[in-house]
C-alpha cells in the first residue's frame, strides 16, 4: 500500500505528502466551505419520558450545563469563519428538550443573527422539539432571528401517543403537542416537520394518525412535511419494516 501510494507518511515536509494532506483536508471539510452546520444542545434535560428514549437521564444528572454561553459559541463560530469563510451558518438545536432553555436559545440566535448580519453570513436555525413548549408567542418571537424549521414528533392518535410519549409525571402529552402543531403550522415558518416513529408497537394504528392529519388539513399545508420514520430497536427483526411498507401500499 505504501508502494502504491495508498498509505503516506504523516511527515508533511515532503512536497508530495503536503499535497496529499491538503487534498485530504479539502475533501474532509468541503461541506464546511459554503455552509457551516452546527448542532447545539442547550440542555440535557427533558420534560418527557418516552418509552424508547435513548437518553440516559440518570447518568446525565449533575452534568454541567451553561458551559457553552452565547459568547463562547460566537467565539467558536468566528474562529471557524476565519479559516473557512463560509457564506451561511445553520444551527440545529437539539436536546434533551431545547425549549426548556428558551431564554438561552433566544440569546444564542440573537447573537448569531447580529454577527451574521455584520459579516454577510446568512444565519438560520432549526429546532428539534417534543412540541410541548412551542407556544405561538415564542415561535413568533424567534422567527425574526432566522427560524427556518421545526421538527415535532407525534407517534399516533391520542391513546397511542400518550402511552409512548408521556410527560415525566406520566400525564399524556398528545393534547398539548397536537394543538401546538396545528398552531405552528399556521405561522410563517418555512418548514414544520411532523415526525412519527413507527415500530412494532404503534404500526397497526398508523393509519388512524394519517386520517387525523388529513382531517385537520395538515397535508394541504405547503410548509408541513410528514416524516414517518420506521425504527426498529431490534436489529435482529428488520423484516417487519419491509412487511409494514408493503402493507401500507396494499390499498
Ligand atoms: S422527547 Fe426526546 S429526549 Fe425527551 S424523553 Fe422523549 S425521546 Fe427522550
Helix content range of the residues, please? 40-55%
What shape does the CA trace take?
globular
Tally the helices: what do you get?
10
List how many beta strands DSSP finds. 6
Which small-molecule species are bound to the chains here? iron/sulfur cluster
CATH class: Alpha Beta
**Assembly category:** single chain
The structural class is: alpha/beta
Nearest-angstrom radius of gyration? Answer: 22 Å
Describe the overall structure.
The chain is of the alpha/beta class and 251 residues long. The protein has a single domain (15-248), classed as TIM Barrel (Alpha-Beta Barrel), CATH 3.20.20. The protein has 10 helices and 6 strands; from the N terminus they run ααβααβαβαβααβαβα. The protein has helices spanning 15-28, 30-34, 57-60, 70-84, 102-119, 136-143, 158-164, 174-184, 206-215, 239-248; strands at 35-40, 88-93, 122-129, 147-153, 191-198, 224-230. Strands 1-2-3-4-5-6 form a 6-stranded parallel beta sheet. Strand 5, helix 9 and strand 6 form a beta-alpha-beta unit. The protein starts with 14 loop residues before the first helix and ends with a helix. The structure holds iron/sulfur cluster (SF4). Iron/sulfur cluster (SF4) is lined by residues 46, 48-50, 53, 55, 95-97, 130, 165.
Describe the structure using short key phrases.
251 residues, alpha/beta, TIM Barrel, 10 helices, 41% helix, 17% strand, globular, binds iron/sulfur cluster
Amino acid at each position: 500500500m505504501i508502494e502504491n501510494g495508498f498509505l503516506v507518511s504523516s511527515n508533511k515536509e515532503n512536497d508530495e505528502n503536503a499535497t496529499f494532506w491538503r487534498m485530504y483536508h479539502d475533501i474532509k471539510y468541503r461541506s464546511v466551505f459554503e455552509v457551516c452546520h452546527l448542532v447545539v444542545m442547550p440542555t440535557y434535560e427533558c420534560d418527557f419520558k418516552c418509552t424508547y428514549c435513548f437518553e440516559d437521564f440518570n447518568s446525565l444528572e449533575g452534568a454541567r450545563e451553561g458551559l457553552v454561553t452565547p459568547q463562547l459559541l460566537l467565539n467558536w463560530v468566528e474562529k471557524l469563519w476565519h479559516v473557512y469563510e463560509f457564506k451561511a451558518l445553520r444551527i440545529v438545536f437539539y436536546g434533551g428538550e431545547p425549549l426548556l432553555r428558551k431564554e438561552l436559545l433566544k440569546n444564542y440566535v440573537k447573537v448569531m443573527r447580529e454577527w451574521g448580519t455584520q459579516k454577510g453570513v446568512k444565519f438560520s436555525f432549526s429546532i428539534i422539539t417534543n412540541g410541548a413548549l412551542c407556544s405561538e408567542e415564542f415561535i413568533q418571537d424567534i422567527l425574526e432571528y432566522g427560524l427556518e424549521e421545526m421538527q415535532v414528533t407525534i407517534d399516533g392518535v391520542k391513546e397511542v401517543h400518550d402511552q409512548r410519549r408521556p410527560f415525566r409525571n406520566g400525564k399524556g402529552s398528545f393534547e398539548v403537542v397536537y394543538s401546538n402543531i396545528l398552531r405552528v403550522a399556521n405561522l410563517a415558518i418555512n418548514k414544520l416537520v411532523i415526525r412519527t416513529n413507527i415500530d412494532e408497537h404503534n404500526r397497526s394504528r398508523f393509519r388512524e394518525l394519517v386520517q387525523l392529519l388529513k382531517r385537520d388539513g395538515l397535508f394541504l399545508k405547503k410548509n408541513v412535511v410528514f416524516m414517518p420514520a420506521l425504527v426498529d430497536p431490534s436489529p435482529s427483526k428488520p423484516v417487519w419494516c419491509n412487511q409494514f411498507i408493503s402493507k401500507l401500499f396494499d390499498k
